[in-house]
Design a protein that fits this description.
- The complex is a heterotrimer of chains A (214), B (96) and C (115).
- By secondary structure, chain A is α/β, with parallel strands linked by helices.
- Chain B is mainly β.
- Chain B has two helices and five strands; from the N terminus they run ββαβαββ.
- Helix content of chain B is 8%, strand content 35%.
- The two termini of chain B are 26 Å apart.
- A five-stranded antiparallel β-sheet of chain B has the order 4-3-2-1-5.
- Helix content of chain C is 62%, strand content 0%.
- Classes of the chains: A alpha/beta (214), B mainly beta (96), C mainly alpha (115).
- Chains in contact: A-B, A-C, B-C.
- Chains A and C meet through α1, α2 and α7 of A and α1, α4 and α5 of C.
- β3 of chain A pairs parallel with β4 of chain B.
Chain lengths: 214, 96, 115
């Protein structure tokens, strides 16, 4: 099974209408019911619900890639990112909200990978909603115990002389991995560098793409 | 203002208790020895927030590092591999 | 004596990580939005911690049968019922209304396609 395709730049499928070809499920009905009731009761406006959906739609891995690319070219910005991702994101016009996000840097000596064994905590306000596999039983169970094997399934091999450090985001922090800048990218613009930074590299299951792939 | 019990570098053991309820200390790390990596801050207690209570007084939260070989019997990987987990102070005991 | 709760799965055996992902359906985004708007500091009708606790309380069978956002809406709904934000009666009536509406819409769509 390969993970060599990258989901960062594909066009989203059109929103499936609520009435789908398959039968609608009880929980879809429940969702619609709750949505309508809270609007009817004046607890929330329909506009606010819609705006919240649009807000989450606006968060996607490209925002994180922008952040990481700047850390590659600007050491002072990198220091600010390592100190406080939320604050540094605001410099780029990205509002990451109240939940603190911490950046963890891949180096020559340490490779970081993030998991949430208890549920699915993820830096959503920076890079959008997590992929299904991140929330799966297999990822949540195995990554803490056999990270190198899980990384292999993603096509990533970390040499034995590099420490693999697994972060289980159990509390109020979320994590974003700062992948290492690949060799052969000297002089590249931030925009071009950002194309190498995939969502998977910011979770830590992959490295940034190498320059000869784009 | 509550004070921190632990400092970076301190050796700690994760308390062995197994209550039902909304606990954010994973099962697999209870009873394990680790080291305080950093103090994160004070946060309302999620165990109480989970029942609609205010979770005060706030609890101190630490990042704790564990050697994988201390957590898993027969860990398949280099000795340097680690786990870092965010754990609340009331789940940690000092070890000398 | 130790008790491992069903959701607390770190370290358990499991198969390969399947490369599954999907573009989120509208109803899923709606669940996400409902939870977010109800948990604002101004409203505090639902917190992330309550939602998680509610998911953990669904129990092993249901936890595994439902998908991610099905678990979210199940938990959120239970909590809103407990708090009396919605009543069982009005929820039941609303769900029946929606089911009827969607069924009728589907039948209309089908007959339009046929004609």
């Amino acid at each position: 099974m390969s993970h060599d395709h990258d989901h960062d730049h594909h066009q989203p499928h059109p929103y499936q209408p609520d009435i789908e070809d398959k039968p609608f499920s009880e929980r879809m009905v429940m969702t619609q019911a709750i949505a309508e009731l809270i609007v009817e009761k004046g607890i929330v406006s329909a506009d606010e619900l819609r705006q919240q959906i649009e807000l989450m739609d606006s968060r996607e891995p490209g925002l994180g890639a922008k952040l990481v690319a700047r850390t590659w070219v600007d050491p002072d910005f990198k220091a600010r990112v390592l100190a406080d991702v939320n604050k540094a994101s605001a410099e780029l016009g990205i509002d990451t909200g109240d939940i603190p996000i911490m950046a963890i840097e891949n180096t020559e000596d340490v490779h970081n990978v993030v998991v949430c064994t208890l549920c699915s905590c993820y830096p959503r306000m920076l890079i959008g909603l997590p992929p299904d596999w991140y929330k799966s039983r297999a990822y949540r169970s195995r990554t803490v115990r056999e990270p190198r094997k899980v990384l292999e399934e993603f096509g990533t091999t970390i040499p034995d002389d590099v420490e693999v450090r697994v972060h289980d985001s159990t509390a109020d922090l979320r994590y974003i991995v700062l992948p290492a800048r690949p060799a052969g990218t000297e002089g590249w613009s931030e925009d071009k560098l950002a194309e190498l930074i995939t969502r998977d590299s910011m979770i830590g299951v992959s490295l940034a793409k190498s320059p000869n792939t784009i | 203002m509550s004070t921190k019990k632990f400092n970076p570098g301190d050796s700690v053991r994760v308390r062995e208790a197994y209550p039902p309820g909304h606990v954010r200390t994973p099962y697999f790390v209870r009873g394990c020895n680790g080291q305080i990596q950093q103090f994160v801050g004070s946060f309302a207690n999620p165990e109480e927030l989970a029942y609609g209570r205010d979770g005060k007084p706030e609890m101190q939260l630490y990042r704790v590092t564990f050697k994988q070989s201390d957590v898993w019997q027969g860990y398949q990987g280099p000795a340097a591999d680690t786990l870092v987990i965010d754990i609340y102070e009331h789940w940690l005991e000092p070890i000398s | 004596m130790t008790l491992r709760r069903h959701h607390d799965m770190g370290g358990l055996d499991a198969g390969p990580v399947e490369d599954s992902e999907h573009d989120y359906a509208m109803w899923e985004k709606r669940v996400d939005a409902i939870v977010k708007v109800l948990s604002t500091p101004e409203r505090k009708l639902l917190s992330t911690d309550e939602l998680r606790r509610g998911i953990e309380e669904l129990g092993p069978g249901v936890y595994d049968e439902l998908n991610y956002y099905e678990r979210w809406i199940s938990s959120a709904t239970n909590i809103l019922l407990e708090k009396g934000v919605v009543s069982v009666d009005e929820l039941g009536r609303k769900m029946a209304e929606i089911e009827a509406r969607w069924t009728a819409d589907r039948e209309n769509l089908a007959s339009e396609t046929r004609s």
